[in-house]
Task: structure prediction
Amino acid sequence: MTELSRYRLRYAADLLRAGGVVCHPTEAVWGLACVPENAAAVARICTLKRRDPEKGLLLVTDSVDRLQALLAPLPASRREAVLESWPGPYTWVIPDEEFAPSWVRGRFSSVAVRVTDHPLTAALCKAVGGCLVSTSANPASLEPARSQQQAERYFAGAVNYYLPGRLGGRRQPSCIRDALSGDTLRSA
Result:
């Protein structure tokens, strides 16, 4: 990573910790991120996307270690299935009442989480020191942004920072599965 890239990463992490919203490349599309503990930042993402907050949002992180408290209550066989898929393009919906704030879970008693294998997204989580809210960079009913320029057309100056980088090369957003049943909720 170049010195400029490290500076940009630190700058984005500082903005996130201060309650900002950062747009960045992920595995397949550009995403909007904020720290999940900041209710105002989460609400701002929902407003930018024109998304009903009751639908909930997913969390992304760089390390399974950050999710141990969430994973511990799962039956051993289901926990093993989840762990075998990470890091990678699998988002799992896991029962939750305390790990994620209610404004992230929406109307659900579960939270969707992924341990990313995208280097920049993982580095951003590491720089912030935890999980990030992660959602595609697009207003409702429009296609997710596949470039920084498209994200900027959608949101212009309403986002605090656009962290430059490349997409991870996947064609589709992550597969979403139910951690208890193993059922696929969204195919990749």
